[in-house]
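Researcher: Please predict.
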Amino acid sequence: MKDADSKNSSKFSALIVAASSSFLTPFTISSVNIALPSIERDFQINALLLSWIATSYLLSAAIFLLPFGKLGDIYGRKKIFRYGIIIFTLSSFLAAFSNSAGMLIFSRIIQGLGSAMVFATGIAIISSVFPPEERGKALGITVAAVYSGLSCGPFFGGLLTQHFTWRSIFVVNVPLGIIIILLILFKLKGEWADAKGEKFDVKGSVIYGLSLIALMCGVTFLPGISGFVLIITGFFGLFLFFKWEKNIRYPVFDVNLFGTNRVFAFSCFAALINYSATFSVTFLTSLFLQYIKGLSPGDAGMILISQPIMMALFSPVAGRLSDRIEPRIIASIGMAITASGLILLSMIRENTGLAPIVSCLMLLGFGFALFSSPNMNAIMGSVERRFYGIASGSVGTMRLLGQMLSMGIVTLIFALLIGRVQITNEYHPVFVKSFRLALVIFSMLCTGGIFLSLSRGKLREN
């Protein structure tokens, strides 16, 4: 009886800590999106540099997620998780007092590092503590916390920006971060290191990181020749990374899982496509509502909150369903609904009312909720315990690579259609054109992802 109580307490503590941290980082992402027009005015920066305030965080997180997932497997997931929250909290304080766009972007890079340490280990801790029959529900709650953070971000971020400037968004992270640190120190007991004693793959980590940097910097420099050179270099680097990881004894990312585990591979690729097609929607819609519709940050936040509220409401339901029904069925339906929402949103114009925009965002939120937690359950349920860290890192990596690709598509469209200028009144028509073009591309991506999701195979044999 005492052992059962101890196990239940351990599960509850792990869930509270994972859910709390899963709330904090998305809260920051969505808050910053709503504050971007204010940041642009403060620092007088162009559209491309403005996009890098969001992209720098994602790039940093994507670079460090895989290495820290493996380090967590080797040295302890709770240890990496704890240090990640500390770094995230300190970098939030630094961002709040940035006196230039360069310093803010640097702070966002450090934030991305801390966030990578948290996300690389949080899902793995949940999967280590909860048995398979309860994992979907726990992951659903964790995903709901992510969407709660996304929900609160636009609303509170808009209010904070409007009344206390954009800097207050980063200030509020500090006490929240401290609370999570205290929870880890006093409530989260135990340690999980299922790959203890293995060597860490430094070379593979460096190749991977430099390849991602080359790709994203290449997108920024397009259509110049240097942009094409960097992109080609980045893809070549990823090819080298794949070859290296395939043959090394202790890879930072076990690419062989993609060749031998169909459910794992197709679920990861489905996540990559889904995030590629959806992440920049909030970024673009925030700019549309403030630049084109003339809304204040607070009012724009009230509109944007409709999407993540649907995610937060339906993610736990979808997670529980995926414990009983094949995850690929629920996730594929979610992907189809998301594609429909993107198509509808791509049709809005300058004179479109707010009600159709809210309806499209709610449809997107519902579709993404049906996709996300079942897809995550499929990934974590398709591997052995010793691969939980790698699988957790894969979930986060596909999310971040997808988010980065999504922002890369937007950055490329901005570079080709708008250029290195501020989005002033004269550039509003071309911004709307860019907005609609991006959503058409995203809807095409998501439509293709439906078939990939359906093709993943069964997680459980009936």
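Model: The radius of gyration is 21 Å.
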